[in-house]
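Technical annex, item 7. During the second reporting period the consortium partners agreed on a shared format for inverse folding records so that results from different sites could be compared directly. Each record opens with the tokenized structure and is followed by the designed sequence. A conforming record, contributed by the partner at site C, is shown below for reference.
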């Protein structure tokens, strides 16, 4: 009987440990608690009311053009349509910091409406629309650098 109890306890401990580790693993969404209620089709104003003010402040005169409500912003004009990427982050930093999956989550707007949220959706839409993707660009630059060192 004692052996069955020890075995059951060991199984519960292992399952519990893996559950906790899975919950702590990388997420597609930095700021998941706030961004969870952002849905496709929401307007800028609706998203602003959900996510609040971001942690970035302009340091240089031109920085305010690259920020929306404290979040890094990029605007692209593609086939007569305006696409805006708002890079949500919840940690302080600088607009000069590189964009990374560990610190930022993309919100893609077409005009005034959310088109995609999170890296998975953004990756697919960015490729479809030919929007520069900083994550893919890094992979490309890494592969170029790697190929040059193999000569």
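Designed sequence (site C submission):
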């Amino acid at each position: 009987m004692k052996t069955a109890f020890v075995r059951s306890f060991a199984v519960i401990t292992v399952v519990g440990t893996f559950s906790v580790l899975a919950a702590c693993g990388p997420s597609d969404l930095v700021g998941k608690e706030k961004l969870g209620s952002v849905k496709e089709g929401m307007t800028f104003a609706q998203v602003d009311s959900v996510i609040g003010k971001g942690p970035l402040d302009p340091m240089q005169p031109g920085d305010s053009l690259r920020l929306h409500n404290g979040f890094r912003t990029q605007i692209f004009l593609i086939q007569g349509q305006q696409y805006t990427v708002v890079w949500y982050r919840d940690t302080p930093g600088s607009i000069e910091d590189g964009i990374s999956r560990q610190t930022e989550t993309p919100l893609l707007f077409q005009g005034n409406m959310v088109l995609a949220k999170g890296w998975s959706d953004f990756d697919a839409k960015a490729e479809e629309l030919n929007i520069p993707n900083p994550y893919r660009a890094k992979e490309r630059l890494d592969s170029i650098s790697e190929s040059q060192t193999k000569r």
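Helices lie at 2-24, 32-35, 44-51, 119-129, 134-149. Residues 13-26, 140-145 have pLDDT under 50 and may be disordered. All partners now use this format for quarterly exchanges.
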